[in-house]
Amino acid sequence: MTKGPIILIEDDLEDIEIFNEVLKELDISNRLITFLNPSDAYHFLESNDEQPFLIICDINMSGMNGMEFKDKIDSNEKLKKKSIPFIFYSTAAEKKFVIEAYMKLTVQGYFKKGDNYQEIKSQLRRIFEYWRICLHPNN
Prior knowledge:
alpha/beta; five-stranded parallel sheet; about 45% helix
């Protein structure tokens, strides 16, 4: 798997805990860096030269939401050049969000969070397997 960290932006502590458990069970060796809000994640990405493997972001968060966060990344030339794979992983699965994510924000994936641990584990396994073998400008 690509060496860079996985950046998770999620404001639900229980979801972060589940994510950590799944990564351990799947034996994903990438470092996980979590942020409870997009503003802190943006500051980290902007001030750090490390190439993340993947950004996984929730949609509905207080303050800046996931859509605004992705738009801010796309407006930053330095971050845009990094071509960091960006996916939404959220309970917000309304068609309007999916359309905006792909048409306006050009995300690389949009997934509805699974309803239970095994479903989440299965989804994340597929996501990581895909990005491990996907050709990308920065790998």
